[in-house]
Sequence to fold (393 residues):
Amino acid sequence: MFKICELFSGIGSQSEALRRLGVPFEVVAWADIDKRAVQIYQKINDGCDKNLGDITKIESLPQCDLLTYSSPCQDFSVCGERKGATQGSGTQSSLIWEVHRLLEDYQRRGCLPKYLLLENVTGLVQGEFKVFFDAWRRLLEDDFGYVTYASVLNAEEFNVPQSRNRVFALSVLKPVKSFTFPIGEPLKLTLEDIRDDDCVKQYITKTQVKSALLSKYSTAQDFIKTLDEKCACLTAHASQQAYCIAEMVQNSGENSQGYRVRSMKDVAFTLTSTGGGFSRTGLYFDDVQPTKLQGEIIDDNGRGAIVVGGYKYHVRKLTPRECYRIMGWKDKTIDKILELNLSDTSHYFVCGNSIVVNCLIAIFGELLNQFEGGSYDWFKEVFGYSKVRRKLF
Fold:
């Protein structure tokens, strides 16, 4: 039985990945302090009572094979205050040092976990924070004997329509060989493939549409591309998206996805746990209808719409179900989560704060196949079919 301990567990993406992969496993302990995440974790896992709560108050952890410790990312994120994780700094991200303390206890007891897994924003391995990350890797090796392998995976390449780059760091205790990260497969998935028809309350008003768009343009025609055109680089910060009708930022230069709009024929913005405006899910054009009206922003029976090229494009946020879907969760489990009747804001928070299940399935599949003698077809679980690689000769 493969034993796992989930620190900073969130809603339990790690254990869900093992479950979906078909691995016989046991969660010996988990820890989180967010009430919303705890509620969902317990709902999914039939009231599991092994939550250890505040990591700073945990004195010792049960013996396990895998310890996951995806600590808070906000102090590494370009969207955060970038305070870093210096030991003793008191930042949320500095809670990673509690993991070092608990590993010291494991070491004294002679039962260090075989594997450690960290997921975080790519800011952790870029610029000033790469120095911290490299030092952390050396510390794990010098103090405990772990060799850490790291790679950036994008959820887009693991069968979910969400642009979400995250760094994964797998630490292996005294490995006899190197670890190779899984390789995904880019698919032509869009938000239309995971669309939730129950989305009426997610549409925003005319006033809200106006607040989200660049105010210096007098009509929508000036800055909206049609569905069949490639979007040009509208600002220095906007990216080029094949089906992006409009991707705009305010005059202030604020590069927030709460002030940009994409088509449902594109992939989702990165879900976030915090942020103003509509930045947690981003905004999307949906329910496109022909019209004789000319270019302007209108009120269409309470829903805001942008009129351009003979069509009116209604604007909305994603639904909670859509958010869970693009984090890799299946509807059967999503139904259980939605039974809790939490607010949409709560669902947006836990999704933005979570890890894409599909990426974890791929990593755990490779981990067990490479080091535990497994034969798990993670590719089939993620993509729905087995990968057949053509031989070169």
Q: What stands out?
A: The chain is about 25% helix and 20% strand. The chain has a mean pLDDT of 84. The chain has two domains: 2-187+355-383, 199-318. The CA atoms of residues 223 and 246 lie 7 Å apart.
